[in-house]
Amino acid sequence: MVLLVKNANQLSSFDSEPIPEEVTDQDREIFERITNTELTPEQREHILHPEETYPYQKDVLAVHWHPEYVPIDLAVGRIEAMFPTKERELIIPTQHNELVALGDFCGVEVDCYSRGFNQKVQLLLHFHTERLASAPILRSMIEHTGTYRASQLFEFMRTITGPVTERLQAAARETGAGEDLVSFVRLYVRKIEQLLEDSQGQISDQVVKNKLLRNFFNELRPQYGDQLIDRAQAFLKAVKELVKAEFPLQYFYRTSEIIEEARLHGAGIVVPHPEQFWPILLAEYDVDGYEVWNPQSRRYTDFLITVVNRKNLGLGLGRRRLLIFMGDDTHLSEKVRDPGVQDRDKAAREIGLQPAWDDLWIRKKLIKAGVDRPTVIKEYTERLI
Questions:
Q1: What is the number of structural domains in the chain?
Q2: What stretch of H or E contains 138?
Q3: 191 with 132: CB under 8 angstroms?
Q4: What is the SS3 assignment for 190?
Q5: 97's torsion region: left (phi>0), alpha (psi -120 to 50) or beta?
Q6: Is residue 23 part of a domain?
Q7: 262 and 136 share one domain
Q8: Can you tell me the distance from the alpha carbon of 179 to that of 216, in angstroms, rounded to the nearest whole number?
Q9: What are 238-288's pLDDT values in tens digits?
Q10: Residue 377's domain is classified under what CATH number?
Q11: What is the C-alpha separation between 59 and 385, in angstroms, rounded?
Q12: DSSP annotation of 205
């Protein structure tokens, strides 16, 4: 069976050839390419040789970044090349729902559920590695969370291929997608489902994520052109957002449960990009600090600094002050993708590069709060040790 194109004007990038519904050799080649986590020599060199260096930055604070499938030693090499004269540092990877170590420290970014305001939030957990030598309950909690979070991809695909009609109709209305475009997307998502089933147990968990669909469709650009694939991507993104909005939260551990278990093992706890789930600022959770800036959360930096400062002014005796953090939120795998299919915003991020620390207006706010990179590095390291 094949997909026939009814409206060549609507899908102008289709050629006249019908599209086979069964998985083709070309489909398998694309799937293998986007799920391959073995870096080529050229990709390794690209990681080790950043386009820009920052010899005047003496302090490197990086506690929110994702190595993904890029080896840690390459990440370290890139950091050394970027900051050749650094004097002070605190660098801890925070893979999504997976503990990863670097030197004396390890970290993770965990999804959890805050029942009080019925919303998923995320926490950055940082540990001195020795303190986490034995933590079977915490490790199991993180593993469960990772498994459940990965299941969203399958719900995403099921929505399209099932289909879940009300979601598809809503996404089509939002993006102006016609029947031909929806059929085109559904056909290829069915192929991806089949390819995932065929490769079960043979590919890294790091690629079994929502962006697998985005990456696959980007690889179709040479065949169908940017216009069609851009429209398909817009439709996919709208469906993904609907799936995420309706994804059941009760299967995540509660925020308070994650915090309690993490504290038993001496964790430092930071709330990343709180502007995306601002009620957490009111929850009075036992955390070490808040991230006030990262490349996708910069709108309320001034406000968040003020909030943290006010909280600190109202602290009772014996309570540690809240620290201010900035996260580069780097996703290293984006740097080894071909430029034509990269997420440009993510590809531009760099471990330890947070320009807001040096912004004159923000620095004025930070001075009033008694905060800078060296003091945060020193104080947070002392808490972890």
A1: 2
A2: helix 136-161
A3: no
A4: helix
A5: left
A6: no
A7: yes
A8: 21
A9: 999 999 999 999 999 999 999 999 999 999 999 998 888 888 888 889 999
A10: 3.20.20.140
A11: 19
A12: G
248-272 burial: b if 16+ Cβ within 10 Å, else e: ebeebbebbebbebbeebbbbbbbb
**Same structural domain, 156 and 142:** no
> What's 32's DSSP letter?
H
Domain-located, residue 95: yes
Q: Are residues 63 and 131 in the same domain?
A: yes
Q: What is the pLDDT of residues 324-333, one digit of tens each?
A: 999 999 999 9
Q: To which H or E segment does residue 19 belong?
A: strand 19-20
Count Cα atoms within 13 angstroms, Cβ side, for 377: 16
Mark whether 293 and 309 lie in a shared domain: yes
Q: For the beta carbon of residue 108, count every other beta carbon within 10 angstroms.
A: 25
- Decide which of 246, 275, 299 is a domain's last residue: 246
DSSP conformational letter for 7: -
CB 142 within 8 A of CB 128: no
Query: pTM (2 decimals)?
Result: 0.89
| CA pair distance 46, 382, nearest whole angstrom | 34
- 60-88 pLDDT, tens digit per residue, is 999 999 999 999 999 999 999 999 999 99
Establish if 33 belongs to a structural domain. Answer: no
pLDDT for res 11 = 52
Both tokens assigned to 16: 């006249």
Q: What share of the chain is helix, strand, coil (3-state, %, to 5)?
A: 50, 15, 35
DSSP string computed for 280-315: GGGS--S-SEEEEEBTTB-TTHHHHHHHHHHHHHTP
The length of the chain, given as a count of residues: 385
Residues 272, 348 share a domain: yes
β-strand partners of 65: 330
- Using the 3D structure, point to which of 213, 246, 279 is the last residue of a domain: 246
222, 263: one domain: no
* Pair 173, 217 in one domain: yes
Residue ranges making up the domain that contains 213: 2-6+151-246
On whether both 164 and 63 belong to a single domain, the answer is no
